[in-house]
Amino acid sequence: MAAENIDDVVDGLAGIVREAGRAGDRAGYFAALYRQVTVEVRTAIHRGLFDDGARMDRFDTHFGNRYFDAYDAWRRDRGGPRCWREAFGLLDDADTVIVQHLILGVNAHINLDLAVAAARTGPGEAIHALRRDFLLINDILARVVLAVQDSVGALSPFMSLLDRIGARTDERILDFSIRQSREEAWYNAVLLAGQDEEEREATLERLDIRTAVLARLAARPSGLVRPALQLIGATESDDVAAVITHLDSAMARPSARQGPG
User: Fold this and answer.
1) What tens digit of pLDDT does each residue of 117-134 get?
2) Pfam families annotated for this entry (predicted)?
3) Measured between alpha carbons, how far is 109 from 209 in angstroms, rounded to an integer?
């Protein structure tokens, strides 16, 4: 699928969520999170919160198409970027818990796709005009992550165990240091925006390898985190369709926590 605008991105994600729900496909977990972020970005565009709403529509469309391309490549022949193959390759693994599926999607989309989309939206020196709007999305992400965290907590009653063993708090696990990752993505976007085609290919190869390594660390953590995740997996909901529905309605719930922005 290929989106022409942000409305197409929302519709494409909604289609993946619906199909995943019918098929019991865990691809719907990240798609549900991503759909809600995109809806919030679209709302911010309509409210005039960005410096350049039309530019942000283009940016979000480039960003969404990176995900759709990876999703389609995986469905077609198990292809696509390494980091997305790591994420999609665990969709049939019942031992991978809900929050890990979310982290794997966030990892690939922010640590690889975000820089590419930003550089394509603002090539050359034009990238610098995108900075403020790029940062504003951090607040939108924070708000959605908090709401989705409530859903994950309801679906995974032992998520708090990760606090007690000294891992990141449950919110920070799902947060995945989003602000830091987006700051690195901005640096890479500026780099890509000023490179020629050969240089960009080399940079993308490096980013994909690094992001795939991060995916493997998230999928197979060491130390006490591993048995904690096993306990979480043994107690969280295994009804994939119900989990997708719950995650996809996180922002619609009256209890959804409101963050900055």
Assistant:
1) 999 999 999 999 999 999
2) DUF5995
3) 14
Query: What does pLDDT average to over the chain?
Result: 88
Domains of the chain: which residue ranges?
Answer: 6-252
Q: What CA–CA distances, in Å, run from 229 to 4, 80, 108, 208, 215?
A: 39, 28, 21, 26, 16
CA distance 200 to 192: 6
Residue-wise burial string across 80-90, b where 16 or more C-beta atoms lie within 10 A, e elsewhere: bbbbbbbbbeb
Give the CA angle between residues 176, 147, 258 to the nearest 5°. 105
pLDDT single digits (tens) 3-43: 999 999 999 999 999 999 999 999 999 999 999 999 999 99
Tell me if 115 sits within 8 A of 215, measured CB to CB: no
Predicted pLDDT at 101: 93
Residue 221 scores a pLDDT above 90:
no
